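Ticket reopened. Same input as before:
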Amino acid sequence: MGRFVVYIFCVATTLMVPISSANTLAELVDQTIATAKTADCSDKRELDTLQRIVCDKQIQIGVRGDYRSMSVAESRNEYVGYEADLARLIAQRLGVSPKFTTVNPTNRIEKLLNGEIDLVLATMSHTAARDKVVTFIRPHYYSSPSSIFGPANVPASVLTDLRTQTVCVPLNTFFSSVLAENNIRMIIYDKADRLVDAVRQGSCMFIAHDQSFLRATFASKHTPPELKGRVLEKMSFLDVPTGMGVRNDDKSLGVALGQIVAELHQSGVLVESARQHDVLPDFLEKQQKLWSTPQCAPNADGLPDGCLGKAADLSDRASSIASQVKSVEDWLSKTFGIEFTMPMLSGQIALKFFLSGLLNSTVICFGAIAATLIFALLIFGFIRSKSSLVKKGGYGIALIFQNTPIILLFIAAAIILNIVGSFTPTQTIIMSIIVIGLSNGANAAVAMKDTLDIRNDSASLSLKAIVVASFVQIRACLVNAAKGSPVASFVGTPELLSVMTNITAFTGTRSSTYFFMIIFYLISVQLVVVVCNRILTNMTLTVDNTSNGKIK
Amino acid sequence: MKLDLISFVPEFLHAFLQNLWLGVVALVIGLVLGLPLARITFKSHFLSKVVNGMVVFLRAIPVFIVMYIALGILTMTTTIADTNIFSMPVCALLIGLSFSSVSSVFDAAVDSIKCRNAGKTREAMLIIPNIFRVFVSVATTTSVGAALGVKEAVSFSLTTAERMTNPADRLVLVLCVSLFFVVFVLLMRWLINISVKNFARV
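Engineering reply: fixed in the latest deploy. New output:
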């Protein structure tokens, strides 16, 4: 009976939260906290999270430990930055002490859901996809666009200027899909401090991240001397709000935190904190004005919905085969205990990228094999020509394309395409086929010439017989041609490696990406070997039956 | 921007030393793993099958892919200090090159062991120029490290080229660097040919 009374009391107090008679935000927050404080702390099983926090006089908050200006761990439970300030202000308003736990983008939601922390306050962008997993506190406590920083002496003002560049990005970021759509090559780092190290070491020329982070790291009073002026802001895009998150069951805590954030916005204390930590205060100043207007004063439901920001809808919608993919993932998990996700098949954008990458790589792979054969025969024809000029020309072509690293050939071809003035995906695919074909074709032509040189009967050999005699070397060149397509990603060709890296950047899953790439190249190479061997068998039989060349 | 040859050439050659150094390290890895693997194939039929399957795998995966996968795994699991000469991109490149060097050294060693077993000691000694060939191939392939930001000759040339406003100047620079690599490879081949001729005389 006693338990039933407590239950009724708890339900009643929870229901009371939205029905407010407060005139100001401060009164609203006072009411909510006062209601929570009326809970019976002796029976913890009956308490909701807000009541438990109030009873324990402690709130567990997950914050970043490496995010300059937002939250940097200076020592145990000592964090500095705008988010750390906000966490302390919230705890202070609730009348409890904060207990910090360092989280990162990979584990912050997991730690919240498994109860390790009560609140995530860790540079988490509020997106529609995340809304399904956690409850975001509105109003948002910050909003910032994503930026790209790069060297001062390299011109880049729009995304298309970066098509031949490598941009270093953090893992699992929504803005990576925008870079992917613009065919920009990405290198993924899973921690923000590693990105900064990569810039310091010179491994990254361009770096993409939240504007607040990049400005604080590379263009603030806290910037270390060795990083000052290293990279400058080149462009910004895609403004997305940042919000705190609580578990979906913790409604009362969510309501209280929303009211506290609104009150803090109105007071202007967040603007001061932002300025103190070199965080751009534009959004916060707008929020301060907004929450000072009569329209945003509390109403009977609490905070007026029109004053609260919305989630950014950047999610990749489920693909037509998403349910089947999920079934396969579940089967793998149940049968073998393997947690193997295939994000490249489950999202519409990811699937589109994946299929186009697969198609492009297949086209490049087989196109390069055909081009290798064509160029091999062409260069070999030049080398065997009776005209000494053509012969010298053939040798010259073979010498250059055989000995130049393929990456330099790609760069030269990309520059030529740029001079011509166009750089479409189709053109880069054709360019890749020609470059791979020339590089491997030159090798194959020289191999055929070497075979001819060591034979006594070279004058009487047919072309088919020469091909059969130098088959092992030609096959090696064809295998190299089949393997050559990934290098094309260096100049922005949208092939498999390039699109898989891009998909990984915004889905955050790497194992399946690597698995699919390895499988693709294993199959391609084995296919070339099998087909070549079959062709050799047929050709050997044909050559044996002719009088020109007997190959044994 | 016009190219200042007086400052470019020494810096380029310094960057090229990185290519050679990485080539040496990758070759050492190839020798350390490739030679014992080649020996194993002559010890037992079962082990021979396993090792050959492994080498087929190493041969089939492009260096570029291995390099990217290695970088992905390293950035997930490892922290390497700034000052370390084996920075993360360098380690990733070395892992990629090792796939190629191990399989190439394995092939050269298997041929050599076969010749020695058949009593052709002189032919077996051809493993030395063959390994030199592997070094030349690996040292040239180090240029793919530019994609990860490894500070080697191609990467340095690219950074210089990026600063040039005229694309034609960039093309000239890239062609000059290509010519340098062509001359380097030809020089190495000449050395290989000399060594082969010396072996033939012996």
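The helical segments of chain B are 5-41, 45-60, 63-77, 88-117, 121-124, 127-141, 153-162, 167-201. The mean pLDDT of chain B is 85. Please confirm and we'll close it.
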